[in-house]
Amino acid sequence: MTVKKEKENELPRRGFCKECVKYSVALSAFSLFPGISNWAANAAERKEILKNPLSPSGGICNPAPVDFEKFYRQKWTWDKVHLGTHNVNCWFQQNCNFHVYTKEGKVIREEQVGNYPQTNSKVPDFNPKGCQKGCSYSELMYSKPRILNPLKREGERGEGKWKEVSWDEALTDIAGKLIDTIDRHGSKTVVVDPGSNIVNYLAFYSMFRFFDQLDSVILDVNCELGDDQQGAAVTFGEITNDRSADDYFYSDLVFIWGGNPAYTQIPNFHFLTEARYNGTKIVAISPDMNASAIHADYFIPVKPGTDSALANAISYILINEKLYKHDLICEQTDLPFLVRIDNNKLLRQSDLKKNGSSEILYRWNLNINKPQQADQATLNLGTCNPALEGEFKVKTINGIVTVQPVFEFLKKQLADFSPENASKICGVAPETIRKLAMMLVNAKAATNTCTSNFSKFYHGDILVRSQILAFILSGHLGRKGSGYVTASFLVPDGGVNLVYELEQVKERGLYYMAKYGASFWTNLYKSEDWRYTLYKYHIDTFVDSRSMVNSTLFWNLHGGIIEVSGRTKEWDPYLKRNINEYIKETLDKNWQVLDPALNTQPRVLFSWAGNSIRRVRSSQQLLKVLWPKLDLVVALEMRLSSTAMWADYVLPVNGAYEKTTTMVANTNTLSPFLHTTNKATENTGNSKDEWEIACLLAKKIQELSIQRNIRTFTSARKRIRRFDEMYNTLTATIKENESEKISKKIVDESSNLGDDAWNKMKKKGFVKFTGVGNDPANFGNACDIKPGETISPHTWHTENKKPWMTLSRRIQFYIDHDWYLELKEQLPIHKNPPKAGGDYPLVLTSGHARWSIHSLWRTDPLMLRLQRGEPFLLMSESDAQKRGIADDDKTKVYNDVGYMLTRVKVSPNVQPGQVIMYHGWESYQFAEWKSYRNVLASPLNPIEMVGDYPYLKPIMAVRQPGQNDRDTRVEVVKN
Length: 975
Prior knowledge:
Layout lengths: L12 H20 L1 H4 L5 H9 L16 H8 L4 E5 L13 E6 L2 E7 L24 H5 L9 E3 L8 E3 L2 H19 L4 E4 L7 H13 L3 E4 L1 H4 L4 H6 L17 E5 L3 H4 L4 H9 L3 E6 L11 E4 L5 H14 L5 H7 L5 E3 L8 H4 L9 E4 L4 E4 L18 E5 L2 E7 H9 L4 H8 L3 H13 L3 E3 L11 H14 L29 H25 L2 H16 L3 E2 H7 L4 H4 L2 H4 L7 H10 L15 E5 L3 H4 L4 H6 L6 E6 L11 E4 L8 E2 L10 E5 L12 H19 L3 E3 L5 E3 L3 H5 L9 H9 L8 H8 L1 E3 L26 H4 L19 H5 L19 E4 L15 H4 L7 E4 L1 H6 L7 E5 L4 E8 L7 E3 L51 E7 L1
Parallel strand pairs: 6-7, 6-18, 7-17, 8-9, 8-16, 9-10, 18-19, 19-20, 26-30, 27-29
Antiparallel strand pairs: 1-2, 2-3, 4-5, 4-20, 11-15, 12-13, 14-15, 21-22, 22-25, 23-24, 26-31, 27-30, 28-29, 28-31
Helix pairs in contact: 6-27, 7-27, 12-16, 12-17, 12-18, 16-17, 19-20
């Protein structure tokens, strides 16, 4: 046996292994022991980190020698164990119960608890819940880039020159600016961007209460994010509906259509794999063979943005071969409703009777051979035998008109979507389309996995409307394991009470009582459904109340993005008018909300758990157009985000383990538990929680207003508000050091968490939701939550015959709004994606990353070690070869909008013609700070701006114009 001699200057194999162990142990020590990984003590090192968060000092580069045995023993010693979770926006995978271990007052590690109950013996339990981000949260919390003191900009914005200042100095400057700005220019010149991490109730409540006192503009970012589920809002009347993850065990067919739950639902994904072991068939439909597709039984590659053609082909087969579920679509949908041939409008009572209602619609009753108005109080057909096909004459107040059921119009429209025709569009073979159709028809219970992917397409609404149509025609609705789901949302309904604490609501209370009081009770009596009436009240008052305003319109019209997105007509051949005409009409008619008005310049911007420079598509325009208008930019942060780098002040916010709070938003049906995180350790450095920051800033405003004798200001509604009472008003019920009471308040006031919920949460870490409750955000689930049973949505409709929240009070596929008719989208249809950004050969798509929650972990050294460590673009082998690009090459990605510089990762999982960049990278992680946002054209779609239609009106988070990125066209060249 020969022994190979080691090369000179090369470690022997055993020595190499030892060094690897030492290096790994040292890395772990950085995350487990704050004394090693805490903020750099050296002033020069700290300054370098502030200038460049990715500097060597900002990460783990030179691990210290560690005695292995000592380290390992210390790892398993602690003083206390706390229950906690991470109040970040994980949405579909939120939250997870963790044990948080502290030693000498510092968190040394965290681990999953694994104490979730099993719903019943037929389904798996939810254990374990957690992901690699949660398991390393303490490393993030104690990492060197953590901001410990307020920072004041010294150089130019974005230059990275900062000075650490006291809280008193920072708050004094900020408060003074706020008083001066509001006094001189009006309250609506102060704007706050809540960002997607506003989901914990402490941050949410603090922001709303504070900025409501100042009558400021609070941006509604959900549609801008691309989480608006426009297709569901149009079809179901609500976007929220989902099942609990264990309900997959009752499905025999699951479509992962356009999503990647292996990335976005890490704690829930085991339910899908276990269901597959149990016999459930999994079908993955996506352009790339992603991490979820490799666990599926069937992978269906589809061209990006063409899923509506595929779905319409399935519906074509179901209708052409009469495989649809006749009774279900007659009862649950608007497909039997009558449409006038002369104007393509739904037949209304106002057509037949003088002073008739425009919201009462008709079906043709074959039993009596004449039109009969549809019951708005129940879905029960009673004696009505509605016609799905045929042509009929109806006498209206203006003469005889010809009408046909919606189903007839649908048949004609789907005639172009034979599998052969659709295959040419979507790239799926005709025989595969037929197989998918038959799988749906033959399945006892088919469902899909929730995804917000399609909302991020320009034509995202028709992509989802078409998919819903295929599921409904094949009969999948309102049963265990069955039905199309769109957005997982289940929140504690105590949060609704915040509305009544807001000054602007108090100011308008009598007005709303006079305007809506009588109709509220009348509708309640007529509809026999208080939920529908309450929801209608909310959508009727949203625009007028101006409690939040659409961020997409704000960024476009005040931030200059319209210079890019306004080229919609250039890229969308279906558009009839210039996008500016649609914007003018929607604003003139008060369909959508824009604040401040176009003639008012924003002057102060607060980034409150937000990161708009990283998040907003074409955000380079914000720096060019909006930022020069701003006299003050303030960011609340744990670390220097892309937005914080362009701020004037950065205020350090404490971490999840440093406060007690619970979630107010994005808790969900998939994992129907509400969690609390209990304070495990004191604040790191001089960081503070959001409530204390709000209170201290209010106190400073009150003090300065008295000193300057500027005691009051006039709100936008011409009401007198008081600077000199702001702190007293804000802290009247909850003092500045009592932030735990905020979360206790929402739990105690919630009806859907069971008895003594707060004490149970404190002891166990979570409670299970007991019902949908009274928050309109939950109503779309439309089901009871019963002990010992999984959650299945829409059973109120199928079992109790409760109406849907649409004009027809059914699942609505036909929309006769003038803009829908103009754009020929009154029914689910397919439209080719726009060439957003110009006529370039590659389609740039994106997705939520596995190694971060948005941008929060994107710069974390431990997470970067699990991937390439810097931004990269996924490209197919054939596209790379054509361009002479090799793996890890530096490239320039460009279009008519801008460019970015990034490395390429050549992947066999990406189809030719597509490139992918997973989201969340900070701007400063790219060369020249040219991020992937620079190429995102995000054309505005006018269909998202409609109004003046009974249920298609904006409400918080829904039915507003959004941004999109999945249709972006680019070219890539070696750099």
